[in-house]
Amino acid sequence: MLKVVVRVLVCAVFFFGGIAHFVVTADFVGIVPPFLPWPKVIVWATGIIEFLLVIGILSPSLRSITGKLAALYCLLVLPANIYQAVSDVPIFGGPVAPELLWLRIPLQFVLIAAILWSTSENNQKLIHTSTDSV
To answer: Quick check: 86 and 33 in contact, CB under 8 A?
Structure first.
């Protein structure tokens, strides 16, 4: 059951993130590292990718491979998070506390772990409890 809850939360992150790529495009363009060409196209493409990841994660036959692709996607967008933290790029209409920008980087790895665990075909429990009596 916990796996399903985490999976739904992961899908919510990608779904609302995908929407944000189209609603506040200019803000996302601002965090695309300047060495990358066509930042608006990158923002729109990553928004579409996030919607496709939701569909794949919700589809049992595609879930496992999509989870791996989603984890890879999170690693590929990590430079944008790092660029935003290093350059203190404002988003959503104003500046963001530097601590939050830096916290987002390790949280990306928590998200990756949640993605991989919740989309894996392995049915092991996250927390093991012993039933042995002493």
So the answer is: no
